[in-house]
Amino acid sequence: MRDIIAPGVLKVDFTEKISESELLETYKKEIKDNDAEEGIVIEMPDLNSASKPRQYFTYNPESGRSEPLTKATFNYSAKNSLKKIVAVSDEYFVYNFLYSGNNYGSTSSGVPVSLIVPKMIVLKDSDVSESTYKAREFDAIVPKPAIVEN
Prior knowledge:
Mean pLDDT: 75
Number of strands: 11
Structural class: mainly beta
Strand order of the largest sheet: 1-9-7-8
Largest sheet: 4 strands, mixed
Number of helices: 2
Shape: extended
Order of helices and strands: EHEEEEHEEEEEE
Strand content: 35-45%
Oligomer: single chain
Number of domains: 1
Helix content: 10-25%
């Protein structure tokens, strides 16, 4: 599904692109230049669904250690989220979703849209905050149904 292009296509392109290895070095340099010990990496698992969850990790370039952040969210307001794009990879990624009016569609309705975007972007001064999402608790084992006698 990643390689199929939908009827609506938007490609986000940049004039200055660098290889993935150069981008990772830029990322490490940005962490050091900002007197930080680690940065945040946001990944999307390779799923064939309309809803793509994001996974957040802290990354320490000195140790190479990565730790999951379970309650983080990336703030999407244009004013704050993309304050400064530092570097963009020269590889692209196709992100497909359903668009309905001014929002993402449901998993079954909306116009198919493909965004072709750089696979990796290094951002400086982005806003990440604690998520307010509260997971629902479910029983680990579903109880067996009651036997009904006729």
